[in-house]
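Before a colleague's protein record goes any further, I have to sign it off. What it holds is a sequence and that sequence's fold in C-alpha cell form. My question to you is simply how this chain folds and whether the C-alpha cells agree. Thanks in advance; the entry in question is below:
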Amino acid sequence: MNTLVIGASGFLGAHVYQRLLDQGAHVHGTCGHHYRPGLQAIDLLDTQAMARYLKSLRPDVVIWCAKRTHESCEEQALNETGLCNLVRSVPDATRLIFVSTDGVLPGIGGPHGEEVRPSPFSSDSSIARYTNGKLWAERWLQTDSPLAHTTTIVRTGMVYGRAVSGEWDARTTTVLKAFASGETFSRADNLLRTFVHVEELASALCELASIDCIRGIVHAGPEHGDSHFSFAKAIARAWSLPMHLVRPHQIPPEDVREREVRLDTRLNTSFLRSKLATRFHCVDDRFALFARQA
C-alpha cells in the first residue's frame, strides 16, 4: 500500500509519517514552510505542481494533516484550493483520511456525536477562517468530491504532547512555564474540550488507513473531555507541582457572545473507539505516564 501524508513536517503529520516508517510501510510525505529531509517540499496551492507530483506517485491512501497557523490567511485557501488540487489529481479509488476539528461544532450541549449539525462562525477572526475552512472541506468532501465514497473525516479536539523532535506543544509549554514562575494564574473551567494525545491520534489515523474505509465523519479521542482548568491540574498532579497556583475562572457571557466563544465542543468518541485497537487515554493518565518516564 502506497501511503502519502500531507503535512508530514507538522506536529501531527510528523508523528503519522514516523509511525508509518517504523511499521515498514511504503510512505511518502510532503512539507511546506518547514522542510524536513526525506519529504517532498511542495506548495499545495500550486495546481500544476500538485498534479505532476500525484500523477507520478499514485497513492492508495492519503492522510491529510496539513495545517497553517490560525493567524494565516492561507488556512482557508489550503482547504478550498489545496485539498481540491489533491482530490482531483488522484485516482477515484484513492482512500482519503482528512483531519478536521471540533471547532465546527456548536458550543453547547456536548459531548457531540457525529450526527450533530455543524455551525460556521460569522466573524472574520483568525479562528473563524480556520474553522470555516475545515467546515467547507467537510461539506465538499461528502457531496461534490470525486472521493466522497472513499473519504473518512476525522474530527479531533485539542492535540497535545511532544513533537517528534521532543518539544512540548504550545499549550502544555505555557502551563509549565506558568507553574515555574511561582505566581498564581488562571484557566477557564467552563471551556470544555476533548484533549487528544498526538501519538494516540497518529496511531488512530494509521490504523484507519489499514482497515476497510469508514465513510463519513468520525470523532477521535478519549471517552471523557476536560476543561482548560482540569488540563492544567492534570499537569500539576503528574509532576507534583503546586496545585494552588492554578485557579479556575469563568468566561463571562458577554465574551461568549462578542467573541463567538464555543464553550463546549467535547466529542462523543464511542463509535470510533469501538472500531479501533488504538486506546485513547485521558489527560490525567497520559501526563502521569510522561512523568514516570521522565
The longest helix spans residues 126-143.
